[in-house]
Amino acid sequence: NAGVTQTPKFRVLKTGQSMTLLCAQDMNHEYMYWYRQDPGMGLRLIHYSVGEGTTAKGEVPDGYNVSRLKKQNFLLGLESAAPSQTSVYFCASTPARRSSEAFFGQGTRLTVV
Amino acid sequence: QQPVQSPQAVILREGEDAVINCSSSKALYSVHWYRQKHGEAPVFLMILLKGGEQKGHEKISASFNEKKQQSSLYLTASQLSYSGTYFCGTERTGANNLFFGTGTRLTVIP
Questions:
Q1: Which of A70, B24, B31, B94 could form a disulfide with B3 if both were Cys (CB 3.0 to 4.6 A apart)?
Q2: Per-residue model confidence (pLDDT) at position A97
Q3: How many whole angstroms separate alpha carbon B3 and alpha carbon A45?
């Protein structure tokens, strides 16, 4: 099993450009999450989804949009990238039952210049 | 909504013990603990549910005090492989999301 796969692993964007990060999981998990990780700030929740067709805002949703059209995929979009969005992005998934282990992807390192 | 972790960083010699704390201002349903090596994804260690239980994983154990909304991770007889950043993750009562703390960087030296 691949688990949670993020695409791409690295990307450099110019300010104002747009892009989409893809998260795919093959564990039939209901819940999926997008986090960003910055030095000294830990993992901060951007958006999350509790099932196909649903999304909700986390702690730091501004500047990002998400979609969960298929259960196995959770997309994170940046419509107009800003240098403040330079970060490492992690996707995670958990089963529907509460208090389950979260499985993380390997991360996407995004630099906005 | 992020839980608060302390200390931010700690350096240990092999064989020494450490405690990492995690606290929240919200009512918690559970607390997760993860370890992240540099350049890698976080890896699950354990989950504690409300009820004050204590769990163990080799020489790493944790407790959860639901009345105080606090959890502590105990690392005993530390090994070089314990080095990394430790994160607590919290699930609030009545919520479906998972928030992580700012992390504690643990360095074990020979």
A1: B24
A2: 65
A3: 12
